[in-house]
Write a structure and sequence with these properties.
Layout lengths: L26 H6 L2 H23 L8 H13 L2 H33 L1 H14 L8 H8 L3 H25 L3 H9 L5 H38 L8 H10 L3 H29 L1 H4 L4
Helix pairs in contact: 3-11, 4-5, 4-7, 4-9, 4-10, 5-7, 6-7, 7-9, 8-9, 9-10, 9-11, 10-11
């Protein structure tokens, strides 16, 4: 038999450039890998570009600077006009969004329960989802007159079809094995929907909620601009329209800035919080 190979000791190689895994990252390294930091940097760059372009044009009737816009925003906020407009818009938005979600839940339930419901949902979404809500404004005026019901009607139209379509697609994509596991465990009826189908389909449902929110928000602003022609009451859209007629372009930009800021807040706070406590916690992905 051959002799055993002699033992050989290999000296350790020191690699000082390799950091200790337990060493916490520095502030610069954390910022470099932070999505929120880079989103903030994008906003800073846009703000600087806005200010520079406004100064380069030098005409506040065409393009006011960011400083002039922020001054107009502060004055409208202190006077109480802008908060009142924001409250009016958000009140209508929440009402229309809630009604649209409830109607979408009913449509999706019917589509998941029967072939007739499925045919109805697919046909209605194909008909009305491509139809802009602004195109329904003349009908809304005839049916409901000036006021909140007309605005809520167009908001519901914006929310209903996109949310229904995404929710139905999410439920349809749930793995059949997962459904059968729930049935084998005795989970049936509404508990099967709440405990099995909704968590599995929630990425698609949340996408529908985001799309419905975006459609509802921009539809509301456009509708308020149109209704503001005939009615001296309204929300942010009317604030923009009113100041445009008065050639107060800085206030117009202030209103647009509020529209963007509210959109960022809803997306960055509410929907991200919902995603963190649902999708990330349940371990499901889009």
């Amino acid at each position: 038999m051959p002799d055993d190979r002699p033992e050989r000791e290999i000296p350790s190689i020191l690699l000082p450039e390799v950091a200790d895994l337990a060493t916490p990252l520095s502030l610069v390294e954390r910022l470099r890998t932070s999505l929120g930091f880079w989103r903030l940097m994008v906003l800073v760059v846009l703000a600087l570009a806005w200010e520079g372009y406004g100064r380069w044009i030098g005409n506040d009737l065409l393009f006011p600077t960011l400083g002039e816009t922020l001054t107009a925003l502060w004055e409208a906020t202190v006077s109480g006009v802008l908060p009142m407009r924001i409250f009016a818009s958000l009140r209508l938005l929440l009402a229309g969004y809630a009604i649209g979600l409830a109607a979408a839940a009913i449509f999706t339930t019917l589509a998941m329960s029967s072939l007739i419901g499925r045919a109805a949902l697919s046909t209605l979404t194909a008909m009305f989802n491509p139809l802009p809500a602004v195109a329904l404004l003349p009908l809304a005026l005839l049916w409901f007159g000036l006021g909140s019901p007309s605005l809520i009607f167009v908001i519901v139209h914006s929310v209903l079809w996109s949310v229904s379509l995404n929710a139905y697609a999410g439920f349809g994509a749930v793995n059949q094995t997962l459904r059968m596991v729930g049935w084998n465990l005795g989970i049936r009826g509404w508990r099967h929907v709440a405990l099995i189908l909704v968590p599995a389909a929630f990425p698609a449902i949340l996408s529908g909620l985001k799309i419905g929110w975006a459609f509802a928000w921009r539809t509301l602003i456009a509708a308020e601009l149109v209704f503001g022609v005939s009615s001296r009451s309204g929300g942010i859209g009317w604030f923009i329209y009113e100041n445009r007629n008065q050639l107060d372009i800085a206030s117009v930009f202030a209103g647009l800035l509020v529209v963007i800021a509210i959109g960022l807040l809803i997306e960055g706070l509410i929907f991200r919080l919902i995603e963190r406590v649902t999708i990330q916690r349940w371990g499901v992905g889009a």
